[in-house]
Structure formats: C-alpha cells, structure tokens
Amino acid sequence: MQHTTLIKIIDLFSFVTLTLMISTGTLLKFTLPPRSGGSVVWDLSRHDWGNIHFYISVGFLFLMTAHLLAHARFIKSVITGKASTEKNYRVAVGIVGLITLISLAFAPVTSPVTEVEKGRQHYHQSH
User: Fold this and answer.
1) Can you tell me the distance from the alpha carbon of 6 to that of 30, in angstroms, rounded to the nearest whole number?
2) pTM of the complete model
C-alpha cells in the first residue's frame, strides 16, 4: 500500500470517528443529560450511549496517533521551515468536511426521545 493511500484511509476513519464522537457527546450533553430517567434514543439508554462514546473516543485516539506518525516527515519539514504550500483542493475538502461534520453532529439532538415506563414506550419531541 502506498504511503498516500494509507494517509487517506487514516484521515477518512479519523473524520468518521471524530464526527461520531461529537455526535454522541452532543447527544449525552443535551438530549440525554444526567438524571434523564428512562429516556432512550434508538433503544439505547444514556449509559449505553456513554459506552459507545468512550469506545469511539479510544478509537479516535489511536487514529490520531497513527495520523501523526504517518505525517512525521511533513511535521518535521514544517518545524524546520521546509514545507511546501497547501493545494486548493485540500481547502475545498476541508470546507465540505466541516459542513458534513456539523450536520452529523446535530443529528442525534434532533432525533426523538423515547420515555420508557415499566415496559411501555411513548414518544415525545423534547425540542
């Protein structure tokens, strides 16, 4: 596998895990806050979402380590002042990525919350 292909794969998975980490964190903070009772989203409780958030965060940490190692040569050239200028397509991809990230990060917040009461479920909009 070529070095540039490896970097693209690492960057793609990093972006996906970052998006999921922000999304689950936002869900935990605003949709299922502490003491939210029997509320569930997609049949998962706050505790379940917390576990998912933790494991996504660990995966993101490993991917960021791999990202830094894969870019070690570039980081060295930036530190020594020998880096080339960035290409315009990277800026365009970054803007599209940012818009996508923001959209996906707020998806769980707009999802309906389900209240679970002793075997019964009913839905309500919490927003």
Assistant:
1) 36
2) 0.61
Sequence-ordered list of residues with C-beta below 8 angstroms from that of 22, at least 6 positions apart, any chain:
101, 104, 105
- CA 77/CA 120 separation, integer angstroms: 61
Q: Express each pLDDT in 65-98 by its tens digit.
A: 998 888 888 777 767 766 565 555 555 666 787 7
34's tokens: 């502490």
The candidate with the shortest Cα–Cα distance to 41, out of 57, 27, 55, is: 27
- What are the residue ranges of helices labelled H in 1-127? 3-26, 46-70, 72-79, 88-105
Helix (H, G, I), strand (E, B) or coil at 40: strand
pLDDT tens digits, one per residue of 7-34 = 999 999 999 999 999 999 888 888 778 8
Q: Residues 54, 59, 114, CA angle at the centre, nearest 5°? A: 40
